[in-house]
Design goal:
5-stranded mixed beta sheet; rod-shaped; alpha+beta; 225 residues; 14 strands; 7-stranded mixed beta sheet
Length: 225
Protein backbone atom coordinates (compact mmCIF):
# COMPACT_ATOMS: atom_id res chain seq x y z
CA UNK A 1 0.00 0.00 0.00
CA UNK A 2 1.03 3.58 -0.41
CA UNK A 3 1.09 6.80 1.50
CA UNK A 4 -1.63 9.31 0.79
CA UNK A 5 -0.53 12.92 1.09
CA UNK A 6 -3.55 15.00 2.12
CA UNK A 7 -4.09 18.24 0.30
CA UNK A 8 -6.81 20.90 0.65
CA UNK A 9 -9.27 21.28 -2.17
CA UNK A 10 -9.17 24.05 -4.77
CA UNK A 11 -5.44 24.67 -4.51
CA UNK A 12 -4.20 27.13 -7.15
CA UNK A 13 -2.58 25.58 -10.19
CA UNK A 14 0.86 27.01 -9.36
CA UNK A 15 0.72 25.47 -5.91
CA UNK A 16 -0.07 22.12 -7.47
CA UNK A 17 2.87 22.42 -9.84
CA UNK A 18 5.22 23.11 -6.94
CA UNK A 19 3.66 20.27 -4.99
CA UNK A 20 4.09 17.77 -7.80
CA UNK A 21 7.72 18.81 -8.19
CA UNK A 22 8.59 18.08 -4.56
CA UNK A 23 11.34 15.46 -4.48
CA UNK A 24 10.67 12.24 -2.62
CA UNK A 25 13.55 13.12 -0.29
CA UNK A 26 11.40 15.86 1.25
CA UNK A 27 9.04 13.21 2.68
CA UNK A 28 10.07 11.42 5.84
CA UNK A 29 10.64 7.72 5.31
CA UNK A 30 9.31 6.93 8.76
CA UNK A 31 5.83 8.09 7.69
CA UNK A 32 5.61 5.88 4.62
CA UNK A 33 3.41 2.82 4.79
CA UNK A 34 5.67 1.10 2.28
CA UNK A 35 8.85 1.77 4.23
CA UNK A 36 8.97 -1.79 5.56
CA UNK A 37 9.59 -3.13 2.06
CA UNK A 38 12.82 -3.21 0.09
CA UNK A 39 12.26 0.19 -1.50
CA UNK A 40 10.27 3.29 -0.62
CA UNK A 41 7.29 4.52 -2.58
CA UNK A 42 4.50 7.02 -2.10
CA UNK A 43 1.33 8.42 -3.58
CA UNK A 44 -0.48 11.78 -3.47
CA UNK A 45 -4.03 12.94 -4.21
CA UNK A 46 -6.07 15.83 -2.78
CA UNK A 47 -8.32 14.69 0.07
CA UNK A 48 -11.36 16.37 -1.43
CA UNK A 49 -12.44 18.46 -4.38
CA UNK A 50 -15.75 20.03 -5.39
CA UNK A 51 -17.49 20.84 -8.64
CA UNK A 52 -20.79 22.20 -9.94
CA UNK A 53 -23.25 19.79 -11.50
CA UNK A 54 -22.94 19.91 -15.28
CA UNK A 55 -19.40 21.35 -15.20
CA UNK A 56 -16.07 19.49 -15.10
CA UNK A 57 -13.34 18.93 -12.49
CA UNK A 58 -9.71 17.77 -12.47
CA UNK A 59 -8.24 15.42 -9.85
CA UNK A 60 -4.43 15.79 -9.81
CA UNK A 61 -2.20 12.97 -8.59
CA UNK A 62 1.47 12.07 -8.27
CA UNK A 63 3.48 9.05 -7.21
CA UNK A 64 7.13 8.24 -6.60
CA UNK A 65 9.29 5.18 -6.02
CA UNK A 66 12.93 4.21 -5.80
CA UNK A 67 12.76 0.83 -7.51
CA UNK A 68 14.78 0.28 -10.64
CA UNK A 69 12.42 0.03 -13.57
CA UNK A 70 12.62 -2.68 -16.18
CA UNK A 71 13.56 -1.73 -19.73
CA UNK A 72 9.88 -1.90 -20.53
CA UNK A 73 8.22 -0.68 -17.29
CA UNK A 74 4.69 -1.21 -18.66
CA UNK A 75 3.40 1.61 -16.49
CA UNK A 76 -0.36 2.07 -16.38
CA UNK A 77 -2.86 4.10 -14.37
CA UNK A 78 -6.17 2.76 -13.11
CA UNK A 79 -8.94 4.46 -11.17
CA UNK A 80 -11.49 3.02 -8.74
CA UNK A 81 -14.48 4.73 -7.19
CA UNK A 82 -16.68 4.53 -4.07
CA UNK A 83 -14.26 2.50 -1.90
CA UNK A 84 -10.68 1.23 -1.73
CA UNK A 85 -11.61 -2.08 -3.38
CA UNK A 86 -14.39 -0.55 -5.46
CA UNK A 87 -15.10 -0.98 -9.15
CA UNK A 88 -12.52 0.14 -11.68
CA UNK A 89 -13.75 3.03 -13.80
CA UNK A 90 -10.65 3.64 -15.93
CA UNK A 91 -7.68 1.70 -17.30
CA UNK A 92 -5.03 3.58 -19.27
CA UNK A 93 -3.61 0.49 -20.97
CA UNK A 94 -6.85 -1.00 -22.31
CA UNK A 95 -8.77 2.26 -22.69
CA UNK A 96 -11.56 0.85 -20.51
CA UNK A 97 -14.08 3.42 -19.22
CA UNK A 98 -16.96 2.50 -16.91
CA UNK A 99 -20.36 2.79 -18.64
CA UNK A 100 -21.45 5.41 -16.11
CA UNK A 101 -18.63 7.67 -17.31
CA UNK A 102 -18.97 7.04 -21.04
CA UNK A 103 -17.35 9.93 -22.96
CA UNK A 104 -16.79 11.79 -19.66
CA UNK A 105 -13.32 10.69 -18.48
CA UNK A 106 -9.99 12.07 -19.73
CA UNK A 107 -6.62 11.09 -18.24
CA UNK A 108 -3.82 13.58 -18.82
CA UNK A 109 -0.85 11.28 -18.30
CA UNK A 110 1.70 9.45 -20.43
CA UNK A 111 4.43 6.98 -19.52
CA UNK A 112 6.92 7.51 -17.88
CA UNK A 113 5.43 10.58 -16.15
CA UNK A 114 4.89 10.28 -12.40
CA UNK A 115 2.11 12.86 -12.18
CA UNK A 116 -1.07 13.60 -14.06
CA UNK A 117 -4.70 14.68 -13.91
CA UNK A 118 -7.99 12.82 -14.22
CA UNK A 119 -10.74 14.99 -15.68
CA UNK A 120 -14.42 14.22 -15.20
CA UNK A 121 -16.75 16.03 -17.60
CA UNK A 122 -20.43 16.89 -17.34
CA UNK A 123 -20.63 16.19 -13.60
CA UNK A 124 -23.70 14.32 -12.40
CA UNK A 125 -25.18 13.99 -8.93
CA UNK A 126 -24.25 10.29 -8.90
CA UNK A 127 -20.55 11.19 -9.37
CA UNK A 128 -20.34 12.35 -5.77
CA UNK A 129 -18.14 9.73 -4.10
CA UNK A 130 -14.46 8.87 -3.47
CA UNK A 131 -11.92 8.21 -6.25
CA UNK A 132 -8.73 6.15 -5.87
CA UNK A 133 -5.79 6.18 -8.28
CA UNK A 134 -3.77 2.99 -8.70
CA UNK A 135 -0.36 2.55 -10.36
CA UNK A 136 1.07 -0.57 -12.03
CA UNK A 137 4.73 -0.68 -13.06
CA UNK A 138 7.33 -3.32 -13.78
CA UNK A 139 10.67 -3.22 -11.95
CA UNK A 140 13.76 -5.29 -12.57
CA UNK A 141 12.47 -7.74 -9.95
CA UNK A 142 8.69 -7.88 -10.25
CA UNK A 143 5.47 -6.04 -11.09
CA UNK A 144 4.57 -3.48 -8.43
CA UNK A 145 1.05 -2.23 -7.72
CA UNK A 146 0.20 0.56 -5.27
CA UNK A 147 -2.78 2.81 -4.68
CA UNK A 148 -3.81 5.83 -2.62
CA UNK A 149 -5.40 4.88 0.69
CA UNK A 150 -8.03 7.56 1.32
CA UNK A 151 -8.53 8.73 -2.26
CA UNK A 152 -10.18 11.99 -3.25
CA UNK A 153 -13.74 12.75 -2.17
CA UNK A 154 -15.70 14.56 -4.88
CA UNK A 155 -18.49 16.86 -3.71
CA UNK A 156 -21.10 17.92 -6.27
CA UNK A 157 -22.81 21.28 -5.86
CA UNK A 158 -26.21 21.71 -7.58
CA UNK A 159 -26.19 24.15 -10.47
CA UNK A 160 -27.97 27.45 -9.86
CA UNK A 161 -30.90 27.74 -12.21
CA UNK A 162 -32.21 31.19 -13.13
CA UNK A 163 -35.48 31.61 -14.98
CA UNK A 164 -36.14 34.79 -16.93
CA UNK A 165 -39.69 35.51 -18.03
CA UNK A 166 -39.92 37.48 -21.26
CA UNK A 167 -42.54 40.25 -21.24
CA UNK A 168 -45.70 39.41 -23.10
CA UNK A 169 -47.83 41.89 -25.06
CA UNK A 170 -51.56 41.25 -25.28
CA UNK A 171 -53.56 43.11 -27.92
CA UNK A 172 -57.24 42.84 -28.69
CA UNK A 173 -59.59 44.14 -31.34
CA UNK A 174 -63.13 45.26 -30.68
CA UNK A 175 -65.84 44.41 -33.15
CA UNK A 176 -68.73 46.77 -33.93
CA UNK A 177 -70.81 44.76 -31.47
CA UNK A 178 -68.42 45.61 -28.65
CA UNK A 179 -67.20 42.02 -28.16
CA UNK A 180 -63.51 41.12 -27.98
CA UNK A 181 -62.39 39.53 -31.20
CA UNK A 182 -59.60 37.12 -30.21
CA UNK A 183 -59.88 34.95 -33.28
CA UNK A 184 -59.27 37.82 -35.68
CA UNK A 185 -56.04 38.70 -33.90
CA UNK A 186 -54.43 35.85 -35.76
CA UNK A 187 -55.08 37.70 -39.04
CA UNK A 188 -53.68 41.29 -38.99
CA UNK A 189 -55.19 42.13 -42.40
CA UNK A 190 -58.68 41.29 -41.14
CA UNK A 191 -58.20 43.52 -38.09
CA UNK A 192 -57.09 46.36 -40.36
CA UNK A 193 -60.16 45.88 -42.57
CA UNK A 194 -62.51 46.03 -39.58
CA UNK A 195 -60.87 49.25 -38.41
CA UNK A 196 -61.16 50.82 -41.86
CA UNK A 197 -64.84 49.95 -42.14
CA UNK A 198 -65.45 51.49 -38.73
CA UNK A 199 -63.83 54.77 -39.78
CA UNK A 200 -65.85 54.88 -43.01
CA UNK A 201 -69.12 54.28 -41.14
CA UNK A 202 -68.28 57.02 -38.61
CA UNK A 203 -67.51 59.52 -41.38
CA UNK A 204 -70.75 58.63 -43.15
CA UNK A 205 -72.75 59.22 -39.99
CA UNK A 206 -71.18 62.68 -39.56
CA UNK A 207 -71.35 63.81 -43.19
CA UNK A 208 -74.89 62.60 -44.06
CA UNK A 209 -76.77 65.31 -42.02
CA UNK A 210 -74.63 68.02 -43.63
CA UNK A 211 -75.52 66.82 -47.11
CA UNK A 212 -79.23 66.61 -46.17
CA UNK A 213 -79.14 70.23 -44.90
CA UNK A 214 -77.44 71.48 -48.08
CA UNK A 215 -80.04 69.74 -50.27
CA UNK A 216 -82.89 71.20 -48.19
CA UNK A 217 -81.50 74.79 -48.49
CA UNK A 218 -80.98 74.36 -52.21
CA UNK A 219 -84.55 73.16 -52.61
CA UNK A 220 -85.92 76.14 -50.63
CA UNK A 221 -84.03 78.71 -52.75
CA UNK A 222 -84.91 77.34 -56.19
CA UNK A 223 -87.28 79.60 -58.22
CA UNK A 224 -90.93 78.69 -58.14
CA UNK A 225 -92.43 77.36 -61.34
Amino acid sequence: MALLVSLPGRIPDMAWVLFLLLPAACLQAGNLEGSNREKLYGFGQPTHISGVQGSSIAIPFFFYFSWELAKDPQMRILWRWKEFHGEFIYNSSSGFIHKHFKDRLILNWTQPQTSGVLRILDLKEEDQTVYFCQVHLKTTKRMEVFQSINGTRLIITPAVRTTTKSPSIVTSAVTPDGLEDTENLRNPSLVSLVATVGVVVAMAVLITPVYVMLIFLWWKKRPAD
